[in-house]
Amino acid sequence: MSIDNSLKKKGGLVRARNVLKRHERITKLIEQDRWEDEQSPLGLPKVRVMRMVTKKVKKKEDPKDDDKKKKK
């Protein structure tokens, strides 16, 4: 029996997560110099998640393509 196309994973999680795992939060706190080695990993402070937004790149139009369009 095969899996329906709507249920297949196509590259894992595509959108950004808004909740970090404990080890990810600790690494963020270490980067921000807010983590001490004696500190308990339970009850961690909140860490802001920065989302990356990429803009679509516009294609540069070639003058050759314009000539081809005009001829049609």
From TrEMBL:
Domain of life: Bacteria
Native organism taxonomy: Bacteria, Pseudomonadati, Planctomycetota, Planctomycetia, Kolteriales
Protein name: Small basic protein
Organism: Kolteria novifilia
